[in-house]
């Protein structure tokens, strides 16, 4: 019984998070009324305050958990997987309301009084993991530093998706991220691996199986 | 007489723009009350509506005119001047309220219902000018394209200054922009010029005189 209750509570929390992400993505923080989020989720105000405490708490959760539901492309860790992950994120930003809502709040958070880098640091960790594997496999150029490259990727990606959003509603984002890699790879990849990195989407599961 | 009147009007407009940029930089769009802007500027509400029409009109002007007062580093057009300009912007973002206010609004504009790329396109033009000169002087790598590099710089710079703002109040921004150039230059600069580009602030006017 207790477990069933907990599962239901977890389900309600996910429903709320998804509804909130959608509304934040459409209308930003100020434009997202609690009434609209509750109506979209089909839950009570009590559930929102129980799980998130406040609208700001809900927004923080959307920001920080923006990537937790994603199924990042698999394959061996390293530079190739890192390229696949960034291109996957570019495509998800075109269609995934939770990621879009979280990224929008992370970018616009100054407007509702936050200065919270947790969402950014989450991506730094994801990228670091691939870069450390790349380093240990001899895939990184001698003077490319893991900390620098992951910072550069998170910073550049953040601005590029914003610029792409403002100019083309992110229609050109995958092409822009491929472009970023074309310019960065000569400095980041070791001479041995440079030519073998594919700057494109990961092969689909069927193809790679 | 008519000219004096026009000069006074222009002065009032500048005073308002500066005061608004300061308040937007401190508090964002929603947090910047018209009352506070008028008090800071020491002008009447009538002047604000005469020059800008509305708070949104004022915000648009701050966004679009964010760089018009800047004295960009001089010197011959080309890749070196482009590097100097980006490092100058990194330093100005630490101290210049008009640039800071304009950039903040351009990043957070979604929160107040805008999707306006004019401020971004202004920087594209500035960067294009230097890259076209670089191209005509043989300073660009064979496969570096002017349109791509300027887009990449504007997109990356936008996100890097935001990430730097959230993590260090932009204390590390100049170092981050130097880092960006270290990684980009091998793909952007022609082999002939690569080693001669100085990735640092422009020499001061006294030094270069």
UniProtKB/TrEMBL annotation, chains A, B:
Q: Which SUPFAM superfamilies does the UniProt record give?
A: Homeodomain-like, Tetracyclin repressor-like, C-terminal domain
Is Manganese there in the keyword field?
no
Chain segments annotated as coiled-coil in the UniProt record: none
Superkingdom classification of source: Bacteria
**Which GO terms of the molecular function aspect are on file?**
DNA-binding transcription factor activity; transcription cis-regulatory region binding
Residue ranges forming the DNA-binding region read 33-52
The UniProt transmembrane annotation reads none
Q: Which organism is it from?
A: Streptomyces candidus
Q: What is the lineage of its organism?
A: Bacteria, Bacillati, Actinomycetota, Actinomycetes, Kitasatosporales
Protein name per its UniProtKB record: AcrR family transcriptional regulator
């Amino acid at each position: 019984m207790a477990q069933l209750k907990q599962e239901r509570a977890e389900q309600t929390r996910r429903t709320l998070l998804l509804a909130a992400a959608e509304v934040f993505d459409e209308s930003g923080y100020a434009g997202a009324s609690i009434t609209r989020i509750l109506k979209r989720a089909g839950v009570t105000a009590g559930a929102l305050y129980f799980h998130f405490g406040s609208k700001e708490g809900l927004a923080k959760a959307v920001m920080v958990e923006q990537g937790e539901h994603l199924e990042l492309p698999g394959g061996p860790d390293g530079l190739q997987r890192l390229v696949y992950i960034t291109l996957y994120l570019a495509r998800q930003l075109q269609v995934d309301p939770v990621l879009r809502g979280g990224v929008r709040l992370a970018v616009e958070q100054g407007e509702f009084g936050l200065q919270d880098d947790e969402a950014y640091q989450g991506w730094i960790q994801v990228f670091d993991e691939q870069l450390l594997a790349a380093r240990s496999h001899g895939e990184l150029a001698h003077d490319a530093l893991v900390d620098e490259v992951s910072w550069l990727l998170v910073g550049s990606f953040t601005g590029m998706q914003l610029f792409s959003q403002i100019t083309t509603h992110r229609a050109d984002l995958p092409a822009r991220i491929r472009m970023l890699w074309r310019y960065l790879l000569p400095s980041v990849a070791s001479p041995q691996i440079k030519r073998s990195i594919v700057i494109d989407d990961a092969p689909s599961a069927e193809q790679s199986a």
